[in-house]
Amino acid sequence: MKKTIFLFLFTTIIADATAQSFKKYPIGTSGCSVYLFCGPAFDEAYSEDSSKVFTGECFKDSVYYGTICVKLLNPVKDITQAEELVVAYLDYLKKSFSIEHAVGYGRGNRLNSNENTRGVIDYWQDKDKNNWKVKGWTDGKFIGIVYAYSIKELPEAKADVVLNSFRFPGM
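User: That's the sequence. What structure does it adopt?
Assistant: Structure tokens below.
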């Protein structure tokens, strides 16, 4: 009986640990990466200004996790201006994702306390009533957008881990 209980508990723990795997994924050939609970396939395209754009999304436990990475054709040296570019890109995404409600941007975040980065966070709701949490990052050479959305309430702790996991080349 003890062996059966032990085997059941061991199997349950292993299954739970596997279900919650958190892995680092390279974002196409950008040199950037992100940690996610599921494995996205990244597509590569070009923006109107010919910047390379990598996009990927995956689904795990009722939540969609997505990443957009833009390798800027014309890097921005002033980090404050680069942060404004992230805000403009997030405004563009609001239209693309049919966002109807937004809390408002929280600015001035630093990725891993790196003063050469800036992050902007927001909470959204789209026309289908999906709840979104989105964070945009920049180092002036790249813009990284990481998001989580679900029709249900978002698991804040898991979403935060993902939103703060974006990595620029060399980080």
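The chain has one domain: 23-163.
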